[in-house]
Design brief:
Structural class: alpha+beta
Order of helices and strands: HHHHHHHEEEHHEEEEHEEE
Helix content: 25-40%
Number of helices: 10
Number of strands: 10
C-alpha cells in the first residue's frame, strides 16, 4: 500500500497545474476514494485536499517571486478563478499577499513534497482480529463537534462532562454485546477530514435494547470490522494505536477502510496513567 501511495504522490506532483480527480488517484492506489482519503489524512496529518492546496501555493509562491508571469496568469495556472481568490489563498498559506510578496521579496512558506515509508519503532505491541458482526445499534447522548487532529478535543470533553451521572449508569446497563461498556463513537465525518469540519460524536453503548428517552440512536448495518487492542501508558498507548493501524497494519494487510462509524473503547487505571484500548474500524477486503 505504501508503494501505491507514493505512486499517488508522483501523480499529484505531475498534475499540480491541473484539476485534482480523487477518483483517479484512488484508481492509481488500487483502492477506494474513501480509504485513500482516510489513509492519507492519518499518515500525513492533514487532508489530501489541504496537501494539494499547499503544494500548489508553494509552486505559485516561487513563480510570484520569479516575476516572469502576471499574478493573474499564475492564479489561473493553479486553479483560481480570480485574482482575489488567489490572493486570499496565498495569504492564508504564506502570511502575505502575492502582490506584496513580489514587491518586497518576502519570505514565503514551503510545503515539501511528501513520500511515505514504513518505520518500525518497536513501541507498544498491537494485536488485532477481524470480526463479521451482524447489524447493531449505538445508543447514547450525541453531539455535533468539530474535528481536531492534534491535542484534546475540548468540545467532546465539555460534552461528556455535561452528561448526568445517572445517565451514564443507565447507559452501562444497556450494553449487551461487543464492544462492551461505554464507547466513544465518531460518525458522519466530512470526506476531506479537514481540521474544523464537523462529525457526530456519541458517548454510548452497543446494544439491542431500545433507546431511553432523550438519547440518540445510530443504526449500524452488518459488516466486517478490524478490532485492534493495545495497552500501555496513557495517553500514548491510544495515540500510538491509531498511528500504527494506518502506518503499519493497513499497508501490510489485504483490507481497506469503508464508510461507517469508528468506535473506541478505553479503560484507564485508577490513577489515569495506564490505558487499555480497543479500536473498532469498519473494513472490507481489497479487491483483486
Amino acid at each position: 500500500m505504501l508503494d501505491r501511495l507514493n505512486q499517488v504522490m508522483d501523480h499529484i506532483e505531475r498534475r499540480l497545474d491541473q484539476p485534482l480527480d480523487v477518483a483517479e488517484l484512488a484508481r492509481t492506489a488500487l483502492t477506494s476514494e474513501y480509504h485513500l482519503r482516510r489513509m492519507f489524512s492519518a499518515l500525513a496529518g492533514m487532508p489530501l485536499s489541504e496537501y494539494v492546496r499547499r503544494r500548489r501555493l508553494t509552486l505559485a509562491g516561487a513563480e510570484v517571486l520569479a516575476g516572469r508571469d502576471t499574478l493573474l496568469e499564475i492564479a489561473v495556472r493553479y486553479g483560481y478563478g480570480s485574482g482575489e481568490a488567489f490572493a486570499r489563498a496565498f495569504r492564508a498559506v504564506h502570511g502575505v499577499g502575492p502582490g506584496e510578496a513580489r514587491r518586497t521579496g518576502a519570505a514565503l512558506s514551503s510545503q515539501p513534497r511528501m513520500s511515505f515509508r514504513l518505520t518500525v519503532e518497536g513501541s507498544n505491541s498491537m494485536r488485532y482480529r477481524v470480526v463479521d458482526k451482524p447489524a447493531f445499534t449505538v445508543v447514547g447522548p450525541k453531539a455535533r463537534v468539530p474535528l481536531v487532529h492534534l491535542g484534546p478535543n475540548q468540545a467532546i470533553i465539555d460534552f461528556v462532562r455535561g452528561i448526568a451521572p445517572e445517565a451514564k449508569e443507565r447507559l452501562e446497563q444497556l450494553s449487551d454485546q461487543e464492544p462492551q461498556g461505554v464507547v466513544a463513537v465518531c460518525d458522519d465525518l466530512d470526506p476531506s477530514r479537514a481540521e474544523g469540519t464537523e462529525l457526530d460524536y456519541y458517548h454510548g453503548v452497543v446494544t439491542s435494547a431500545p433507546a431511553p428517552a432523550g438519547m440518540a440512536t445510530l443504526p449500524v448495518p452488518a459488516g466486517t470490522w478490524a478490532v485492534f487492542t493495545a495497552s500501555g501508558p496513557a495517553p500514548q498507548a491510544i495515540q500510538y494505536l491509531w498511528r500504527d493501524v494506518y502506518a503499519e497494519w493497513f499497508p501490510s494487510n489485504p483490507y481497506r477502510g469503508r464508510p461507517g462509524p469508528e468506535i473506541l473503547r478505553t479503560r484507564l487505571s485508577a490513577d489515569g496513567t495506564h490505558a487499555d484500548a480497543e479500536l473498532w474500524l469498519p473494513v472490507e477486503r481489497e479487491q483483486g
